[in-house]
Design brief:
This protein folds into two domains: 1-96, Winged helix-like DNA-binding domain superfamily/Winged helix DNA-binding domain (Arc Repressor Mutant, subunit A); 99-160, Ferric-uptake regulator, C-terminal dimerisarion domain (Dna Ligase, domain 1), CATH 3.30.1490. Helix content is 46%, strand content 15%. The chain has six helices and five strands; from the N terminus they run H-H-H-H-E-E-E-E-H-E-H. The chain has helices at residues 5-24, 31-40, 49-57, 65-77, 119-126, 147-159, and strands at residues 81-85, 91-95, 103-107, 113-116, 140-144. The termini are far apart.
């Protein structure tokens, strides 16, 4: 797959972060982990384990859902991914942003996650001062019901 130089640089930086995390935690650096890391750069963000597994299955690696999910958790621990808790059973992931702090709208009905950016909100959050705590980055999750689900709910209530 052809990638732009910026994406290639991000992949190389992520590979270094993963290698450091694996070494410091005495884990094995497997070909599957490397392939999964590259796959997260190919799927649309936010994504879940099945999205990454589908991308991996296009190539040489066939992995189980558990393997895909557990490796996504490992990438989260390595600070390469950020986990978004959609509900009690569903987690989605996105690449950890270094510059911009992402904000997300999370639909509690369908699980759709939509990133949004609000410069004023981001500035206000960056300017917060916490005693004895130095904020590196933030993520803000706003849970609610998306427009599509709201319309469906209204229609089902009208039918009653």
């Amino acid at each position: 797959m052809l990638r732009d130089k910026g994406t290639n640089k991000k992949i190389e930086a992520a590979k270094k972060m993963l290698a450091e995390y694996i070494k410091s935690n005495h884990l094995r650096n497997t070909d599957e982990r490397s392939a999964l890391l590259e796959a997260v750069f190919c799927v649309k963000s936010p994504f879940d384990a099945e999205d990454v597994r589908t991308e991996l299955n296009k190539g040489l690696f066939k992995v189980s859902p558990a393997t895909a999910y557990n490796n996504l958790l490992l990438l989260e621990k390595a600070k390469i991914l950020t986990k978004i808790k959609v509900n009690q059973r569903v987690n989605k992931f996105t690449l950890t942003e270094r510059e911009d702090s992402p904000n997300y709208l999370v639909c509690t009905q369908c699980g759709k996650v939509k990133p949004f950016n609000n410069a004023g909100l981001n500035r206000a959050l960056k300017n917060l001062y916490f005693k004895r705590f130095n904020m590196e980055r933030h993520s803000l999750y706003i849970y609610g019901i998306c427009e599509s689900c709201r319309i469906k709910l209204q229609e089902s209530q009208k039918e009653k």
